[in-house]
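REQUEST FORM: STRUCTURE PREDICTION
Request ID: SP-0412
Submitted by: Lab K.M.
Chain count: 1
Length (residues): 78
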Amino acid sequence: MRRIVAAGLVAMLALTACGGGSSTTEGSASPSTDDLSYDVSGVQKVDEIAALLPERIASRGTLVIAAAPDYAPAEFRA
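STATUS: Completed
RESULT:
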């Protein structure tokens, strides 16, 4: 009788150890409010490189760069 009870307890412990899944749901994290800007005040203009820019970008005075946030590693940012 003791062996049956011991086997039952071992089986229960083994099954409870396997049942600990994650309780978080995907998409429940709040968006980050971190400042993601970069300080470029110390960057010097290099005239040789600036001369290589297309006229429409050079006349605008800014370079706009964009990326889709729906691919790694951006989609993994917490």
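NOTES: The first helix runs from residue 2 to 18.
Reviewed by: T.R.
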